[in-house]
Amino acid sequence: MIRSVAWRNIWRSPLRSGIIIAAISVGMSAGVFTTAFTKGWMNQRLEAGVETEASHIRIQQPKFGENYDLKESIPNSELVVNEISKLDHVNGISPRIVIQSMVASAETGTGVKIIGIDPEKEKTVTNLHSKLSEGKYFEGVKRNPILIGAKLAKKLKVKMRSKVVITVQDASGNITGGAFRVCGIFDITSGMFEETNVFVRKTDLARLLDLESSVSHEILVHLDDTELIDQQSLLLKNKHKNLLVQTWKESMPELGYINEIGNLYIYIFVIIILLALGFGIVNTMLMVILERIKELGMLMAIGMSKARIFGMLMLETVLLTFTGGFTGILIGLAASYATMEKGIDLSSYAAGLEDMGYSSHIYPVIELETLVTIAILVLITGIVASIYPARKALKYNPAEAIRTE
């Protein structure tokens, strides 16, 4: 009974109710679409960071990351690799040689991280092989092939099959160098990674450094279930206490912060929208009560309890808020689904975004958990916004209220 009366009361002034519902709808649709857009943006950066750069778990000597000393290799790395590859949920493992050194073209040179990999094993831990914008993954060049990033290629002014020279200090402390030829250029929309990392075959780099090909400075591990990363990392830490075992969150903490900051930004944005809408709802309901003082006085005079009047006014506010909020969520979902397949092209800002590691083509992502949270926040806003107008209505004296014109 109260519910049907409250719903009819909302539409006694269709224009006013329609305007406030439209305002709530526009605000919530913007909130939902921005949430989906931000989630997609953050997820793409996270996926690119984990699946292309860090993989799930990294194993090194504890001091290797300090100065990339050639001597800080993993003892018996082949044995370690064999042991880990037999563990449950491990679906990829790749040993690497890693050094910091110089790469130079005929035009210029720069410092980079040189990563020696087994191309086939590397495919099991990263998706680098699928990120080539030019050339083929270690194909087309027989001797000393090298993969470089698009941004580094631009900086060195080199193209496919161009020759570059890597200068290193070998295991004996001698300065030496080797000529490599570009077999592929990768583009992962992370300008910093593209500019500072090159990939060569592990055997080629070991020969240049005068190392055994079995030597490895780090081992990347990929799992078939991302929910088990922490569990498997703890298992490896207990088995290899002399080594530094890190999940991607530990080896690249900035990636973990991206997700946390993204979620925080989303909720702050939605709360600001709801706060603004909440004040609008309070103002609207105060106007409604001022227009209905005489009616409310009559209801109290014929015996309707203050609790029922309070409940009716609260219900009106909640229904008004939820109608607008639900409509806004549906509009936001429709806009998100409409752009989900083809994405949103921000190529005009590509240079700046890629320098920060973000893609310029965003695919919105809708998460049920976030939608439920937004719906709950809308409901809470409606309840909170209804309290003050409803309490104000109860302060009127029935006799005085009836005489109000």
UniProtKB/TrEMBL annotation:
Localization terms from the record: Cell membrane
Record-annotated ABC3 transporter permease C-terminal domain positions: 268-398
Database matches in Pfam families: FtsX, MacB_PCD
Domain called MacB-like periplasmic core: residue spans: 17-231
Example GO biological process: lipoprotein localization to outer membrane
Statement: the UniProt record of this protein carries the keyword Ribosomal protein: no
One GO CC annotation: plasma membrane protein complex
Annotated protein name in UniProt: ABC transporter permease
Keyword check for S-adenosyl-L-methionine: no
Membrane topology: Multi-pass membrane protein
The family this protein is said to belong to: Belongs to the ABC-4 integral membrane protein family. LolC/E subfamily.
InterPro entries, A to Z: ABC3_permease_C, Lipoprotein-release_system, MacB_PCD
Source domain of life: Bacteria
Main location: membrane
Organism: Labilibaculum antarcticum
